[in-house]
Design goal:
- The complex is a heterotrimer of chains A (330), B (273) and C (273).
- Helices cover 35% and strands 30% of the residues of chain A.
- Chain A is globular.
- Chain A contains eleven helices and 13 strands.
- In chain A, the strands form three sheets. Chain A has a six-stranded mixed beta sheet, sandwiched between helices. In chain A, strands 11-12-10-13 form a four-stranded antiparallel beta sheet, with helices on one face.
- Chain B is an all-alpha fold.
- Chain C contains eleven helices and no strands.
- In chain C, α7 runs antiparallel to α10.
- The chains are: A alpha/beta (330), B mainly alpha (273), C mainly alpha (273).
């Protein structure tokens, strides 16, 4: 299969100025500012095939958004090369711009005071979609995202989840071949997150659109992607299947429990690894396959008032990957 | 050549169509804040009245300023009002919003769409109401000024409108130049205050400038021509050669503005985070 | 209630800290300040050309010579940044976005909080503007009139200090309107223009027609621009009656500010904005 996206040794370094603290610092910076460099990307390479749905995972500031911005032509790389659909993105050729879309979870692209439909009409003109195709695509998207009822309501009156569905629809009207999603589920409640994930997966299955999605929610990646690229400090630390990743790094879950009254005994180790213990609350780590048994025994043997089971935080998985794959350098 | 003409024609048609659609969306947005609309118009009328009063007071002490009578100066005030509204109907408010687009990162959206970012920015924020009151006053003032002229003709009115468009082009080029700074240094609401004063001082007859000032306020900061040239043409007090020079200035400003803007966007995309 | 009043030295300390913090804040906007000063210098240059043209027609305008009038506008640059308060923009934001609640629970006096913020900004700006005025007056040497007597400078200084207080009180009262009016920004614009007009910021008040002079005499605004500028130009022989009147206005507006604040808080708590 041909590649949609090819990235070779891509690097990006930002320049910024240091500001010394205090009034003296402010005064000094009037005349002289020290230039500092931040290597956001340190020569990353990867390739994505047509129709793939790839997750881009990493903590804040890892370089995920920078990569997406370069691939969509917003940023110019410091060095290296990237080709998307045969185009160098930063040339910003309309021929390329008509073939991709980017949705940014934290940036509203719809007109705030108008119904989403009005923004759709604008996109029709901006992307020069012919009326027949527009009607067809619109119908399909309204159906798929279940937004027929809400596209006549001013965007500011929609919930976050509804708004994100409309954002997605607006971005897909011109049937892009490549779709970049930057934190599409950020700030959404759990149910909306699930829905957005379902829609993205479904759209990818039907349309064979290449999707590159960044997130710092493990859930997003786990549910959506077969392949995941983990990035930390501007370097790719893992590129492979999600199953392998989950299996080898996120093999346990976190149990958080609160006692109903003071519990002094030191026997919690047998239920799982104690991560944290303060007062009445305890955080335990238990392996995934034992999780049902562990919680059952805890509930029956300990004076528990409240208990919850949570996914391992992505930061921890990444820390683990980082520690195992590349030794820490100073 | 044969290829080039229909391509050019197609581009113009596309942007006219885009303008129409964007205009209608902007008007819909405007209608949501109707009460604001009326206050803006009333406020504008107040501001223009104050300018006229100020001119009236100065003219109570002298008969002419650099050869301009009170009624001719009123045409200048009116012309500035009309140019301002034309600017609000095209590009002006986009520049007012530019700073916040860059601070919040929404400018990225203009970079990924298949329209030139400067045109998208302008069309995104077309405003009918922002300067409507001033343009209504402007038309009244120009009419009032004409009625006090010794002689006037429809050809002059036609040329006047043509040169108002040239002034709009100068204003746009100049705005592009000034606003390009935003891509290099962020906190800059003051830039558009400068442009505000740029238009305010355009109300003075350009003929007041002498020597080095004449050169600077014609070619570098063109406040000496932006209202003065169209108004002079209406009054019939300048020769065609100066009108031609002002056309050349207009084209130069637009070209320079577009080039610097393009360069600045390149910088934004290589430096911003 | 007496018991709630904090000890004076202790109380002062937090305002001094605030004073310093605000300096750092202001310095971040140095670029804006440079642009502002550069823009204003250009503006003065343009005015110089305009008034030169006016003076070519008649030798005097009212009882101003060209250099007095130029000086008047240069003083405006000082007065605009040193006397005029612009904190009501922040006060409006503060009340609108609900941050005002934080003040209700802190041992800070709302009036003195903003007074301190304003004063610290004014002093820093004054330093910058003085440097700028120094430079400009060298460039426009000969157009700039210096007072003949030293005592004039002292009078001018007193009027500036009192002006800062009065301008702050006026601005604070405008900010207080936010408690009652949602469209406060538009209202503020209109009010600001009227204040500038009757303060003599656009044109010296004694060039106005009689009727406008009489109106401006019963308003407090002339103490912000016209009065200090006239003092500097040596047009007032005995300033003490005016100083007394100015003090009375300061007391009146202090009272008004306090009443508005108390009522505003009541309304704020009732509406729970």
């Amino acid at each position: 299969m041909p590649f949609s996206i090819q990235v070779k040794k891509l690097s990006k370094t930002y320049e910024y100025f240091k500001k010394a603290p205090g009034l003296a610092g402010s005064l000094k910076s009037l005349f002289w500012r020290e230039k500092l460099y931040n290597e956001a990307l340190k020569g990353i390479s990867f390739e994505i095939e047509e129709g793939e749905l790839v997750g881009f995972l990493g903590p804040n500031g890892a370089g995920k958004t920078t990569t997406l911005k370069i691939l969509s032509g917003i940023l110019y790389p410091t060095s290296g090369d990237a080709v998307v659909l045969g185009h160098a993105p930063w040339r910003r050729e309309p021929a390329y711009q008509k073939q991709f879309s980017i949705v940014m979870g934290q940036k509203n692209q719809l007109w705030w005071d108008l119904p989403a439909q009005e923004s759709f009409i604008l996109n029709r003109e901006i992307y020069e979609i012919d009326p027949g195709t527009y009607q067809h695509n619109l119908g399909e998207l309204l159906e798929l995202f279940d937004i027929k009822e809400i596209i006549d309501v001013p965007v500011r009156k929609l919930s976050m989840g509804q708004r994100m569905k409309c954002e997605l629809a607006a971005a897909l009207l011109h049937s892009p071949k490549v779709l970049f999603l930057d934190e599409p589920t950020i700030g959404l409640d759990i149910i909306s997150q699930e829905k957005i994930r379902d829609y993205i997966r479904e759209y990818n299955t039907i349309k064979k659109t290449t999707v590159l999605l960044t997130s710092h929610y493990m859930r997003d990646i786990e549910r959506l992607c077969r392949r995941v690229i983990v990035i930390n400090n501007g370097t790719i630390v893992y590129d492979g299947s999600v199953d392998d990743l989950m299996h080898s790094y996120a093999d346990h879950k976190v149990i958080r429990l609160t006692f109903s009254h003071e519990y002094k005994e030191d026997n919690l180790g047998k239920y799982g690894e104690v991560v944290e213990r303060s007062g009445l609350t305890v955080v335990l780590k238990a392996s995934k396959k034992d999780i049902a048994r562990s919680t059952a025994t805890i509930l029956s043997e300990l004076p528990v008032e409240d208990l919850s089971v949570e996914e391992v935080e992505i930061e921890e998985v990444i820390r683990k990957i980082f520690n195992t794959l590349t030794p820490l350098k100073k | 050549m044969r290829q080039w003409v229909p391509e050019f024609y197609r581009t113009i048609r596309r942007y006219l169509k885009l303008y129409r659609v964007f205009l209608s969306q902007n008007l819909k947005e405007d209608m949501i804040y109707r009460s604001n609309f009326i206050t803006l118009v009333v406020m504008d009328i107040g501001f223009v009245s104050i300018s006229v009063i100020l001119f009236k007071i100065i003219y109570s002490h002298v008969n002419t300023i650099a050869g301009w009578t009170f009624h001719q100066s009123v045409i200048l005030i009116g012309s500035v009002g009309i140019i301002r509204e034309m600017a609000y109907l095209t590009f002006r408010r986009g520049f007012l919003e530019l700073g916040s687009h860059i601070r919040t990162g929404t400018f990225d959206i203009f970079m990924v769409r298949p329209i030139a970012p400067n045109i998208h920015l302008a069309f995104r924020h077309i405003s009918l109401s922002e300067s409507l009151g001033e343009s209504i006053m402007g038309i009244i003032l120009v009419g009032y000024g004409i009625s006090h002229l010794d002689q006037w003709s429809w050809i002059n009115v036609f040329l006047y409108i043509l040169f108002l468009l040239n002034s709009l082009m100068i204003y746009y080029g100049f705005s592009l130049l000034i606003n390009s700074v935003v891509f290099w240094v962020i906190k800059t609401q003051e830039l558009n205050t400068i442009l505000y004063f740029f238009m305010e001082t355009s109300r003075y007859p350009g003929d007041v400038f002498r020597g080095i000032g004449k050169v600077i306020f014609t070619f570098i900061i063109p406040i000496g021509i932006i209202a003065t040239v169209p108004a002079s043409i209406l009054i019939g007090r300048i020769g065609w050669h100066f009108a031609m020079i002002s056309l050349i200035i207009g084209i130069s400003f637009l070209t320079a503005g577009l080039l610097v803007w393009k360069k600045s966007i390149e910088h934004y995309s290589s430096a911003s985070g | 209630m007496e018991a709630d009043v904090p000890h004076f030295p202790y109380d002062m300390k937090k305002y001094i800290t605030l004073f310093h913090i605000n300096w750092q804040n202001t310095l971040q906007y140095r670029f804006s300040l440079v642009i502002y000063i550069a823009g204003y210098s250009l503006y003065i240059w343009v005015l110089l050309y305009l008034w030169s043209a006016v003076y070519r027609e008649g030798q005097t305008v009212g009882n101003y010579t060209l250099s007095q009038l130029t000086t008047y506008y240069l003083l405006q640059l000082i007065i605009n940044s040193v006397i005029f308060s612009y904190i009501s923009w922040d006060v409006i934001d503060n009340i609108k976005n609900g941050n005002f609640s934080n003040f209700l629970i802190k041992p800070l006096d709302y009036f003195f909080y903003w007074f301190t913020v304003n004063l610290s900004g004014k002093i820093l700006e004054a330093l910058f503007v003085m440097m700028a005025v120094g430079l400009i007056s060298i460039v426009f040497w000969g157009y700039f009139a210096f007072p003949e007597r030293f005592i004039t400078l002292i009078y001018f200084l007193i009027s500036v200090i009192l002006g800062i207080v009065l301008a702050f009180e006026l601005d604070f009262c405008v900010g207080m309107i936010t408690f009652w009016l949602t469209q406060v920004r538009t209202f503020k614009y209109m009010l600001q223009t009227l204040i500038l007009f009757f303060a003599g910021a656009m044109l010296p008040l004694d060039l106005f027609p009689d009727i406008l002079i009489r109106i401006s005499d019963v308003l407090p605004f002339k103490y912000l621009v016209f009065f200090p500028a006239s003092l500097y130009l040596g047009k007032i022989d005995n300033p003490w009656p005016s100083f007394a009147a100015l003090l009375v206005w300061i007391l009146i507006f202090y009272g008004l500010a306090r009443i508005l604040l108390i009522r505003g808080i009541k309304r704020y708590e009732a509406v729970g904005a």
